[in-house]
């Protein structure tokens, strides 16, 4: 007490640092309640881990408070110089919407994310399945849609029932693929900047819960397709094996993107079988090779976001394999992609509009490859997401080429 009096009399400024701790709402009292605290914008580190952000804690009525008081003027001072950082997680206005695991922002319905209307317990599962980021679902849907349109009789529109069933099934199948990927990668994801806030890596969801959720999504996907013919269902079995084992490939080979291409484009065989109840490899195999080559383009670009972290933790990818030669390699894959589509369309007897759209698709791939900044994670992500439009262009060409044949 005597020391404090001495400080006040001399007019000295004392620097005090306040450590953080968790407190239940609505209490937000600082350990120095009499001192006014100014607020500044501090961005939360992530959305899941209680070790990095208070968003998850807020969902359960808790708040982590970080208050740093740089200087406190004594009563004898003529002016006060007091600065502090805000409570972490209070302002998410500048949140990066392309962040891999942007599931919710501040736990309120007024946030930018639709996920905030869901019950708190469901939000981590949304992050696990990536439902809020549909690009992966589109990349899975398009090969099946191409094949269904390709198998349609000349002058007719594709079977809408089959398209709807396959489209609906793609949502849980893609979610289960993401879930099993995060299950196998949960320890690796903790060491990668972009993925360490994922629900499994941060501990919000347990491995057992993830496996149960994986099985639930698989049942939903399979159930959506039970009304299709038996041949297509049997042909779908290799697909289930491929996407369930894909996460292991990045530990075994530098070509996990090629293995992903096998899984993500298996719908080309499945879609044809769902319409024809048979298989014509002369038509479907060139398109399948084109789809795998396409996947090698977009997923190699995507993998460049994590190449430094992957190298540090020992995870393999074509981004690491190709290095500075990535654009040359992806150009080769793009050529193989367009050639495969052209050969498939020729054998299927598609009309000239197909080739016009194919030229537009080739221009889209060329734009991606030669304008992407492989050192920019944001640009790699943007180019990756743009592939939903590549798929749409090819589908439009297949549809119109079949109708006008």
> Which consecutive residue ranges, at least 5 long each, have pLDDT under 50?
1-111
Classify the secondary structure makeup into a structural class.
mainly alpha
Q: CATH class of the largest domain, anyone? A: Mainly Alpha
Which percent range fits the helix content?
55-70%
Cα radius of gyration in angstroms: 27 Å
What is the correct CATH architecture of the largest domain?
Orthogonal Bundle
Main location: membrane
Membrane topology: Multi-pass membrane protein
Cofactor: Mg(2+)
Protein name: 4-hydroxybenzoate polyprenyltransferase, mitochondrial
Summarize the helices and strands and which ones pair or pack.
Layout: H1 2-10, E1 14-17, E2 21-24, H2 55-58, E3 62-65, E4 68-72, H3 123-129, H4 135-151, H5 160-184, H6 186-189, H7 199-202, H8 207-225, H9 230-235, H10 237-252, H11 256-264, H12 267-276, H13 281-303, H14 307-313, H15 318-322, H16 326-348, H17 352-371, H18 377-385, H19 387-403
Antiparallel strand pairs: 1-4, 2-3
